[in-house]
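Translate sequence into structure tokens.
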Amino acid sequence: MDARSPDLPSDSLSKVETGLPPVRTGWRTARGEPSLAGMFASVPTAKQGSFWRKLLAFLGPGYLVAVGYMDPGNWATSLAGGSKFGYALLSVALLSNVMAIVLQSLCTRLGVGAGRDLAQACRDSYPRYVSLPLWLSAEIAITATDLAEVIGTAIGLNLLFHIPLEIGVIITAADVFLILALQAFGFRWIEAFVVAMLAVIAACFAVQIAMADPDWGAVLRGFAPTSDILANRDMLYLALGILGATVMPHNLYLHSGLVQTRGYGDGIEEKREAIKLATIDSSIALCLALIINASILILAAATFHRVGKTDVAELDQAHAFLAPLLGSTLAPTLFAVALLCCGLNSTITATLSGQIVMEGFLNLRIAPWLRRMVTRMIAIVPAVVVTVWAGERATGQLLILSQVVLSLQLPFAVVPLVMFTASRDKMGSFVAPRWLTALAALTAAVIIALNAKLVFDFVSG
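Result follows.
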């Protein structure tokens, strides 16, 4: 093994370099080739200069991660929650975002400090009878995410260009060419495209919120936790949907791989600084995601819930109601534009996370376009079946169900992440502080407890 291999705890490097026996690490094998090998360390960082100049080089991956926190599935759950329960579920959106910031900071620590993404760490640490089910769980999560993107993008095309949903679902298969085109120009182009789409989405909702003129006092009260969430089964179901749409399993794999696109070097201090700057990047981006998620829920509460329309869960239904309720034909157009941008953005992150998961768990490397087509076909089939057989009205319920599936898959990604980053044998001097591990463990416990209650409620009828 190379004496400067990032697989060794950083505080043991000097012993290797001086000819002393290497310190045994918690990893069973050498790291091997990184995921997204063509993009690994492809973005240079500033070794000297001001803090802001250094931070600028690290801005980007966090916004790709943030995309997963505002995908079309999130829209369905936020619209349903806002229309049915007003501003009450804003507290869930806030809690979910705090959980996301904590967990994504651990992803940064794992990717930079251990030099592995979460999928590679699972393959190394667990026997095959454990790692393979974890891989299947990750693939289920990616499929559920892709399903939401397929439906959301198809609805966006339908609302803007009146393309039938069945045709729109099939058209989404062509987004693979968008990914390939962006990858050909370099990773910074992918990040620039994502940030541009996020700016459009934010602008669209800013205008719609201004039109809706919500009760800002009620909005602030909505961020305070309420016990009604546990007592009301319907509210809990939507709360879990928001949780699943916010803290998404595939994002944990994605971020631990994306942070390695920066060329931060192998030195201890270089990695420490990289962890700090990458964590700031993801935290800022996730705060933007919270603003957009909250905007969707606030818009639904200020328009639909206020006039008694408490059953709005379909994206096209929300689009149709916006014009008469807000008195402007611009509002539904902005809604559709933002939805289409969300679908396109989510396409990119699902592609990258699928590549990281497959390469990390199976050490199987196939062409990105082939991987994308396979996962997209898996998502397109159920979307077409539901649209043709059950009609357009069923798409919203399918979106919400996909987010609850994501929530049920969360523990299988969160628990290994917390365990790896808490292990000094695996992380060396980059091991997570005890307070951060405790906070992450509490987050995992809350997620598992809420999921257990949801399953119990369904089983018990």
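Note: The longest strand covers residues 43-44.
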